[in-house]
């Protein structure tokens, strides 16, 4: 197993542990909604501290249900993942293209420097001058 494969396996194990451990250890069992987002937690904390708090602004769009809100969030995550995948793929392709071009150029240069392929004396044009 290569070093990169070991690192990838370790990272996958860590991500799986981060997903499973909160559920297995019962973290959040004391809460009514144990895995709410940061916005909900902040709103609860603010209303406990200052019950008369008035928000500065309201959302531009309020989805009619939680399912639609989740679907829009998933769509946003999918678009973001697509943009990141495109970016990394583009740069990997460029890097591979540059490596191929460099290898091809080196192979062509090596083919031109082979003795007997140049002049009758076996010297390249640069060596003859």
From TrEMBL:
Name the residues that span the membrane. Answer: 71-90
Q: Write down the Pfam families for this protein, in alphabetical order.
A: CbiN
Biased composition annotated in UniProt, kind: Polar residues:
118-129
Q: Does the keyword Transmembrane helix apply?
A: yes
Q: Any idea which UniProt keywords this protein has?
A: Cell membrane, Cobalamin biosynthesis, Cobalt, Cobalt transport, Ion transport, Membrane, Transmembrane, Transmembrane helix, Transport
Q: What is its main location?
A: membrane
* Molecular function in Gene Ontology: cobalt ion transmembrane transporter activity
Q: Which family does it belong to?
A: Belongs to the CbiN family.
State the PANTHER family in the record: COBALT TRANSPORT PROTEIN CBIN (PTHR38662)
The protein depicted here goes by the name: Cobalt transport protein CbiN
Q: Which organism is it from?
A: Streptomyces phyllanthi
Q: What is the lineage of its organism?
A: Bacteria, Bacillati, Actinomycetota, Actinomycetes, Kitasatosporales
């Amino acid at each position: 197993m290569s070093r990169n494969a070991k690192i990838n396996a370790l990272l996958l194990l860590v991500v799986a542990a981060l997903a499973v451990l909160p559920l297995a250890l019962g973290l959040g069992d004391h809460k009514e909604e144990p895995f709410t987002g940061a916005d909900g937690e902040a709103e609860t904390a603010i209303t406990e501290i200052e019950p008369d708090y008035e928000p500065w602004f309201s959302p531009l769009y309020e989805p009619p249900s939680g399912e639609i809100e989740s679907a829009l969030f998933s769509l946003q995550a999918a678009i973001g993942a697509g943009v990141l995948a495109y970016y990394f793929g583009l740069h990997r392709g460029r890097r591979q293209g540059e490596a191929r071009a460099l290898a091809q150029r080196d192979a062509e240069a090596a083919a031109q420097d082979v003795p007997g392929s140049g002049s009758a004396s076996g010297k390249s044009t640069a060596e003859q001058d």
